[in-house]
């Protein structure tokens, strides 16, 4: 632990995430092109999903190794809740990814093998490097959440509700635990110059690494679907990637500033409404969005959707 290690700034609330194990199901009748009029966006999301069962277990192992060195009980508790949320995320993504490979894209297994090797190499780096990577990736998710939520009508309108609801649940919880990796990193390493520089490298490393493997995933998907070499498809993809970059870049730039604190990044109101709605709703249903509604409101106005689902073993 750095001699400059510190707790979050005085007066900063330690936000405690709430793990939610929601039993999303991905049956064989679910099309991998779950947004029929936007196969490029479907491919982008599917490519990002491919990364999660490799990234998030790495984040969990890194956090688990760091927590015994954290003296603040509230920070440590938030780290354990973070790990439980991430566990639920990657388990759901793994089920979804198995559908993708089984139904249409077996070639994605090659990318998965490369990620297995990549995260095994990363696991050998120092704990500070791995915690900086963790905090860096989490900084990127805030921009992704803002994009997905603010443009949810465009991006998810008319989509299969099972996938739209699953993806937006994931990013709601990314906003909820936005401070955790930052707080643990600062509790261990403080804000001295070397820790700051390592954190900046982590922002770039964590975000660009995930973007790279996501890109490999959506490129393989679009090639399989004979869209990669079509000019019209490339233009649609460029438009979606442009929206991603415009929303994510400012968050990454702010995350690299000295003194940055994710608490300075307000949640979208829709995210806070989702969290409040779920807290007041019965806990045995699946929160399915009405993707035909022009506003795509949070799925709690009339209670949770009652789906005949079973909890996975």
Question: What can you tell me about this protein's structure?
Answer:
It is built from ten helices and no strands. Helix 1 packs antiparallel against helix 4 and helix 6 packs across helix 10. It has 313 residues and is an all-alpha fold. The N terminus and C terminus are likely disordered. The protein has a single domain, classed as Ribonucleotide Reductase, subunit A, CATH 1.10.620. The radius of gyration is 19 Å and the shape is globular.
CATH architecture designation: Orthogonal Bundle
SS element count, helices: 10
Spans with pLDDT under 50 lasting ≥5 residues?
1-7, 303-313
Broad structural category: mainly alpha
- What is the name of the CATH class? Mainly Alpha
Content of β-strand: under 5%
The radius of gyration is: 19 Å
The geometry reads as globular
CATH superfamily: Ribonucleotide Reductase, subunit A
Q: What does the main sheet amount to?
A: none
The CATH topology assignment is: Ribonucleotide Reductase, subunit A
Mean pLDDT: 92
Distance between the termini: 38 Å
Q: H/E order of the elements?
A: HHHHHHHHHH
- Please give the share of residues in helix: 55-70%
Question: What is the tally of beta strands?
Answer: 0
Number of domain units: 1
Essential attributes:
mainly alpha, 10 helices, 63% helix, 313 residues, single chain, 0% strand, disordered N terminus, globular, disordered C terminus, Ribonucleotide Reductase, subunit A
């Amino acid at each position: 632990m750095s001699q400059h290690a510190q707790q979050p700034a005085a007066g900063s609330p330690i936000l405690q995430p709430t793990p939610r194990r929601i039993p999303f199901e991905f049956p064989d009748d679910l099309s991998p092109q779950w947004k029929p009029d936007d196969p490029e966006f479907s491919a982008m999301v599917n490519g990002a999903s491919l990364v999660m069962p490799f990234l998030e277990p790495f984040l969990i192992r890194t956090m688990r190794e760091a927590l015994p060195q954290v003296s603040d009980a509230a920070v440590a508790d938030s780290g354990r809740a973070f790990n439980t949320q991430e566990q639920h995320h990657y388990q759901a993504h793994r089920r979804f990814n198995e559908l993708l490979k089984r139904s249409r894209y077996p070639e994605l297994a090659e990318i998965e093998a490369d990620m297995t090797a990549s995260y095994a190499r990363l696991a050998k780096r120092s704990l500070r490097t791995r915690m900086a990577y963790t905090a860096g990736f989490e900084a990127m998710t805030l921009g992704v959440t803002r994009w997905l939520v603010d443009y949810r009508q465009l991006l998810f309108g008319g989509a299969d509700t099972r996938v739209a609801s699953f993806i937006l649940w994931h990013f709601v919880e990314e906003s909820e635990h936005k401070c955790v990796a930052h707080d643990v990193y600062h509790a261990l390493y403080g804000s001295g110059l070397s820790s700051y520089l390592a954190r900046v490298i982590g922002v770039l490393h964590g975000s660009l690494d995930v973007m790279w493997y996501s890109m490999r995933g959506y490129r393989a998907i679009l090639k399989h679907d004979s869209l990669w070499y079509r000019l019209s498809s490339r233009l649609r993809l460029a438009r979606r990637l442009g929206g991603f970059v415009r929303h994510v870049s400012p968050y990454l730039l702010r995350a690299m500033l000295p003194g940055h604190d994710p608490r300075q990044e307000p949640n979208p109101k829709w995210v806070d409404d989702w969290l409040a709605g779920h807290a007041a709703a019965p806990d045995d249903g699946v929160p399915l969005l009405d993707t035909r509604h022009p506003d795509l409101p949070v799925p709690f106005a009339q209670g949770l959707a009652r789906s005949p689902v079973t909890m996975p073993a």
